[in-house]
Design brief:
The protein is mainly alpha-helical. It has ten helices and two strands, in the order αααααββααααα. A two-stranded antiparallel ribbon has the order 1-2. A hairpin with a 2-residue loop joins strand 1 and strand 2. Helix 2 runs antiparallel to helix 6 and helix 7 runs antiparallel to helix 8. It is globular, with a radius of gyration of 22 Å. It starts with 13 loop residues before the first helix and ends in a 10-residue tail after the last helix.
Amino acid sequence: MNNQLLGYTPGNSFVYKLNATAKLLFFVLISVSAMTTYDTRFLAFVAVSSLVIFRLSGIPFRSVKRVAQFAALFAVLNIIFVFLFDPNYGARLYGSHTEIFGWLTAEELFYLFNLVLKYFCTIPLALLFILTTNPSQFASSLNRIGIPYRSSYSVSLALRYIPDMQEKFVAIRNAQEARGMELSKKGNLLNKIKMNVQLMLPLIFSSLEQIDSVSTAMELRRFGKRKKRTWYSFVPLKTADFVLIGLALLGVATVIALFFVNQGRFFNPFR
């Protein structure tokens, strides 16, 4: 897969064989659990498991390199701003003050570490779901858990169109570079941002025209006239899918149990 594109690509690993509904429920339940709790033990286990599953899925890292770089940059900026806005938040949160260097305390460092773990808990799972789930199966899974099929189909079309937009953007950028516009790593960062924004505007307008054409074609085919529909790509749940859903429910139950064990959302090793 081109490392510029982010979208579904066929594969043969065990992750591809899982039902889209099971993968969706697992991703949502585990992500919500990881975002809710600040128990480092649970977050570390989910983070390591996510990375291991991503490794076993057979997806090459180069296919998500850009996304990983952007997520890393966002995580670093988030941690810096959290620390700058309130460097004593960790000390107040854990009820102790262990100074390491200047304003930096062990409590604040531990809190920031938990924030980093949350990224490792959710981002690999999100990428796994996007890269290994057929958009049509994703739409049928959304409809199966109760979301109206019109909305489900809209999400499916969006997922199908994202790689096309990325491919068009790369083609436009390469054409502009051939005409002398400096968009490589050698250019000035601010100028590259400005030029990329200029390239995005015509792409957005052309995309809106295509969306209007697709909507008109679907209306002419009487899409959405009935309350229910069948799905050509529907796949029944298998044993492995029920195991995956069970693991997700186990994760939710673990977070609930840890809430009572820790007497709150936070695991406090400084007591």
